[in-house]
Design brief:
By secondary structure, the protein is α/β, with parallel strands linked by helices. It is built from 11 helices and 15 strands. Strands 3-4-6-5-7-8-10-13-14-15 form a 10-stranded mixed sheet, sandwiched between helices. The chain has a 3-stranded antiparallel sheet with strand order 9-12-11. The two termini are about 20 Å apart.
């Protein structure tokens, strides 16, 4: 567990830990957004409010109810915040297409104060790793329930809610869907009966479970469509299966095969040889893929199953983009890859940037997954 948390924390260095607050605070960021934003308190935990930012184009004319995109940040359940300038271009893009975007905070089960003590202590006998995931899931459910209750106020469609996240946020999102479809107590106690999401978009995520009996995924009912973004050589969050005495992980390569068997639509965007940078890259460089999933599968209802494999020596990013919103982020990523902060392809191969000429490399579309890659 320590290895997982250290690697993710090394990669996502957006924040500094504040010992006097439940949520570690990010460095001050200048948020530039085309969309209108308002902040609301959606739940109170242990006497402390948890907030979310709701982005929408208030003057936009839309036909019918609007779909919703809920995003959970990454940071190893130890750091991070809903306030992240890295995400706002995607929020603006989706809002212009008629979506309502919601950036949520959630309790950080692995955060520690300056004294080294946990800011949140798990109940006795509760696996600390699973506890961090479960309280994040519980807060996703609380945000979802709040939005459903205020659906008329924001003109949103409760049947078209998509959850997404990066790294820890992606794991929370995948576990949230799995709990719904496996009859988990958290889902039963915190969501309306028979509710399910319209889609899940995990950016470097997996389902993680603990306990001797949780050695495989057992779905009691069909899950919603999913759109995975993942590097096949991610050292932090498993791409396929992870089994050890402390936890069992089920990544997108494994889950997509289950979805295919259950005839559930999905898109798996695999970066062959890619690393954990896929937790961030889709926020700017994979809008075409996100749009395709949202428009064709979530809104259009098409039963599409796609496993896209992309391999390229050039990442879909640049130093200016990362360093503009998170100073030092580009160097931190390359240090993790052993590049010495000098740039280069590193471990996150890529194709064309957003809006690049259509003749640029775009990946290889395949049929159903053929099993785990080693």
């Amino acid at each position: 567990m320590k290895r997982l948390l250290i690697l993710v924390a090394a990669f996502l260095m957006a924040c500094t830990i504040n010992a006097n607050a439940q949520f570690p605070q990010q460095q001050a960021q200048q948020i530039v957004s085309k969309a209108d934003m308002n902040t609301v308190e959606f739940v109170v935990r242990d006497g402390k409010p948890i907030l979310m930012d709701i982005y929408q184009m208030k003057g936009q004319k839309t036909e019918g109810k609007r779909p919703v995109f809920i995003y959970s940040f990454g940071g190893a359940w130890a750091m991070g915040s809903r306030v992240d300038a890295l995400c706002n271009p995607l929020y603006d893009h989706l809002c212009e297409k008629g979506w309502v975007c919601v950036a949520i905070d959630y309790r950080l089960g692995s955060a520690r104060g300056r004294d080294g003590k946990p800011l949140i202590t798990p109940p006795e006998g509760y696996n600390a790793f699973q506890f961090s995931i479960d309280i994040g899931v519980e807060d996703i459910y609380a945000a979802t329930t709040w939005l459903i209750k205020h659906a008329d106020e924001y003109n949103i469609d409760p049947e078209k809610i998509v959850i997404s996240g990066s790294s820890a946020g992606a794991i929370n999102s995948m576990n949230a869907e799995y709990y719904i479809c496996s009859g988990h107590k958290l889902a039963k106690d915190n969501l309306p009966k028979d509710f399910n999401y319209a889609g899940v978009i995990p950016m470097a995520g997996a389902v993680y479970l603990t306990g001797e009996n949780d050695t495989m995924l057992k779905w009691d009912k069909k899950p919603c469509p999913m759109c995975f973004f993942h590097g096949s050589s991610d050292p932090t969050v498993t791409f396929d299966i992870e089994n050890n005495p402390n936890r069992h992980g089920f990544g997108p390569n494994y889950v997509s095969q289950q979805l295919y068997t259950m005839d559930v639509p999905y898109m798996l965007c695999e970066y062959f040889g890619g690393d954990h940078a896929m937790a961030l890259l889709p926020l700017k460089w994979f809008w075409n893929e996100i749009d395709s999933f949202m428009d064709r599968i979530v809104l259009g209802g098409q039963n599409i199953k796609v496993h896209m494999v992309e391999k390229s020596p050039k990442p879909r990013t640049d130093a200016n983009w990362l360093d503009t919103v998170r100073p030092g982020q580009y160097e931190a990523v390359n240090r993790m890859r052993g590049q010495g902060g000098q740039g280069g392809p590193g471990g996150a191969p890529g194709g064309r940037p957003q809006g690049a000429p259509q003749g640029a490399p775009q990946g290889n579309f395949q049929g159903p997954p053929q099993g785990a890659r080693r």
